[in-house]
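User: I'm designing a mutation panel for Alpha/beta hydrolase fold family protein and want to avoid disrupting the core. Could you give me a predicted structure to guide residue selection? Please restate the sequence first so the numbering is unambiguous.

Assistant: Good idea. Sequence first, for numbering, then the predicted structure tokens:
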Amino acid sequence: MSSPNKTCGRVAATLLMTLAWSAGAADAPAPAATSTAVPDPALDAYAEPAQRVDIGKGRRLNLRCSGQGEPTVLLEAGFAADSMAWAKSQPLIAERNRVCAYDRAGVGYSDPGPLPRDLDADVADLHALIEAADLDTPLILIGHSYGSLVVRRFDERYPKLVEALVLVDPPVQNVGAFSASYAEREAEVAPKMLAMYRVCEQGAKDGRLSATPPAELKSCLRGPNPNYSERLNAAILGWRSKPAFWTGMISASERRAPLYSGPVPKSERHDGKPVIVLSADRPYSGAPPKDMEALLAAREQTHTALMATSRLAKRVTIENSTHDIPGGQPTAPAIAVFEAMQMRQRAKSGKD
């Protein structure tokens, strides 16, 4: 019989694989420690909140804005990721535009939100934040991975507030249509993921999620990132070791499967505005060959269908990129903003 620690390790490995390949978590694995790693002092800005905006009912969301220029750009990170996911892209966008990133409820320096945490809750929070922060609209919304679902749904709800959409490596949908066995294995992993999250939640409640957690909790937290200062690593540990973070993860994870189980709805429309899809050229590095074909086929269907939601659509494959385009190829979202502005201008002048 397997020991609990070995079982937890196997579940953790499967969890990370599932998040990266299927639903597409935004967090990239922490770089391996090396003797030459030097912390980037610019990242220390993320060791503390920026502007905690009161969105009502006693809740505040952390908003981080920079730059000047219209239209304003709003960055939506992937699942469980905070605004630091955009640390490399945001300064590039800020050279031309006002640009803001934020932490979703329970993540980073934002207060937790009421349960359940689902796509509609995230969209409602984003709307409340835009209004409370008095951001200039219409906005260019950029969503990475799960964040692309948030901005798509937001545009459907509040189309007058959106100038354009940039969808950064949107997660694969409808993979079960291409591989029933993959979908079955994914369904088997889901309850194990939730069980692991609940162990982490209890560890947080017990105050046992620390820089040196016990063996059964090591899968809950990554070790210190050598590219981050001691102060920043401590700040990240601080919010990831809070029970509210794990409670939100559990609630959101319980409601994720329906978002990905079917294809992009034929009723989804973003007509009249640019939709740019950025596709990574190496999205499933390390996936077994038996899964790769199904994942790529489902991904092609997903990204092609998203382009069909608007007559002003464009797809760009980003060379030498993994799923973490904002971290690995940070110029790509910045270029997409400029292209979206040009597409919008041509449409207004009747040239498209």
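For picking mutation sites, this is relevant: Residues 1-35 have pLDDT under 50 and may be disordered. The beta strands are 51-56, 59-66, 73-76, 99-102, 139-144, 162-168, 275-280, 313-318.
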